[in-house]
């Protein structure tokens, strides 16, 4: 049995006012090409197909186009669950009808998890689909007031799964899983917290019975506790905190005993997301690029219209900030003279030079001094 494990598409994602739809279509084209090449038996999407409960029209169209090509044209089944960004009702609508055509989607948590059963040369493979559900939903579905956090909720879900002894079992879910259910940092600033106060973490120990656990929610691909419990990560970068992530998906091959071989396939973005650092004059000598850049300026003096200047080289620049310099206390400890705060005359000279590409002459500075004294005198009165 061969299947692809992907997650966290976040179609319709908006980053710093820029929709990522064009880039998402670009990487999903590569994903579809890989399906044509590898001919997997199934595709897993482990939650967060959309970035919001009511996605923009372009995002809905993109998902429709992708599923049409994978499920209908390539005859490859897709197995998916809703994530915390998705609308359960939106994804659940028409699910019974779509199953007949090879699209298996679980939007809402059900009281009984019925597996999707596929067969290969070795027998049955059971895919158990568990959409994102917070403890309050689980309490309502199961009528169990002892469900107080995400770990006890997941435990209740798994306890109701029937494990057929002669079958192989794959879990598909969306949760924050850590080795022992203890707090760990998110892998990206774009991941929405599931809860506060440590209630969101789920122990990887709960998934020991499954031959493979396909997870979504964390945006960096990695395994948890052992190599059969994995996050595929997002297919492209959605935050500068993901700058060093290697984005892609997993190709999973399972033998007759349930042993898995997992290979990472990278996806190449249309525009990378990265940090650019330096003084403005230096940045303006860079080779032009369409990457999404977050700029850290090292200039000690203010720079006028910095975004306008940066966009002459990086038209898709998303953010500019001044790099925090060394503090006066640090400089003093290092025996370095601390530069005094520039006075009004220095600030004027800098502003005039930036606006006119030349320094002010003596007469201009005299007029500035007169106006400044008049303003200060008026303030004193």
Secondary structure elements and their pairing?
Layout: E1 2-6, E2 14-15, E3 18-19, H1 21-38, E4 42-46, H2 57-73, E5 78-81, H3 88-92, H4 95-99, E6 103-106, E7 116-120, E8 123-130, H5 135-142, H6 150-159, E9 168-174, E10 176-178, E11 201-203, E12 212-216, E13 222-224, E14 226-231, E15 248-254, E16 260-266, E17 273-278, H7 280-283, E18 292-297, H8 306-310, E19 319-322, H9 328-333, H10 344-356, H11 362-380
| Average pLDDT number | 90
Strand adjacency order, main sheet: 6-5-4-1-15-16
Major beta sheet, specifics?
A: 6 strands, mixed
- The dominant shape is elongated
Percent strand equals 15-25%
The ordered string of helix (H) and strand (E) elements is: EEEHEHEHHEEEHHEEEEEEEEEHEHEHHH
What Rg is obtained from the alpha carbons, in whole angstroms? 27 Å
Number of helical elements: 11
SS content category = alpha/beta
How many E-type strands? 19
Helical content (DSSP H or I, runs of 4+): 25-40%
Low-confidence stretches: 327-331
Taking the alpha carbons of the first and last residues, their distance comes to 85 Å
């Amino acid at each position: 049995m061969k299947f692809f494990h992907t997650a966290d598409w976040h179609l319709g994602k908006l980053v710093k006012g820029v929709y990522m739809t064009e880039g998402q279509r670009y990487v999903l084209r590569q994903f579809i090409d890989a399906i044509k090449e590898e001919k997997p038996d199934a595709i897993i999407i482990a939650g967060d197909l959309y970035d919001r409960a009511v996605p923009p029209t372009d995002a809905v169209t993109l998902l429709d186009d992708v599923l049409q090509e994978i499920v209908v044209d390539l005859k490859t089944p897709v197995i998916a669950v809703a994530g915390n960004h998705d609308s359960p009702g939106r994804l659940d609508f028409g699910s019974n009808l779509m199953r007949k055509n090879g699209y298996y989607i679980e939007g809402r948590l059900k009281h009984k998890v019925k597996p999707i059963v596929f067969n290969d040369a070795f027998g049955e493979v059971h895919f158990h689909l568990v959409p994102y559900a917070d403890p309050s939903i689980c309490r309502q579905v199961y009528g169990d007031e002892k469900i107080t956090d995400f770990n006890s909720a997941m435990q209740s879900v798994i306890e109701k799964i029937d494990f057929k002894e002669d079958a192989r079992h794959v879990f598909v879910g969306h949760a924050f899983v850590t080795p022992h259910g203890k707090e760990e940092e998110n892998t990206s600033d774009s991941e929405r917290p599931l809860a506060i106060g440590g209630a969101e973490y789920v122990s990887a120990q709960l998934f020991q019975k499954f031959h493979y656990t396909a997870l979504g929610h964390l945006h960096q691909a990695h395994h948890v506790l052992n190599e059969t419990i994995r996050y595929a990560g997002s297919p492209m970068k959605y935050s500068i905190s993901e700058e060093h992530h290697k984005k892609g998906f997993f190709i999973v091959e399972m033998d007759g005993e349930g042993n898995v071989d997992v290979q990472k396939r990278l996806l190449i973005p249309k525009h990378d997301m990265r940090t650019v650092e330096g003084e403005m004059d230096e940045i303006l000598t860079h080779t032009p690029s369409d990457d999404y850049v977050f700029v850290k300026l090292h200039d000690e003096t203010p720079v006028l219209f910095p975004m306008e200047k940066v966009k002459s080289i990086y038209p898709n620049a998303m953010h500019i900030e001044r790099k925090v310099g060394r503090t006066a206390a640090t400089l003093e400890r290092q025996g370095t003279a601390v530069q005094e705060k520039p006075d009004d005359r220095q600030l004027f000279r800098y502003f005039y030079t930036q606006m006119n590409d030349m320094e002010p002459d003596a007469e201009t500075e005299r007029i500035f001094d007169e106006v400044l004294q008049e303003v200060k005198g008026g303030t004193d009165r």
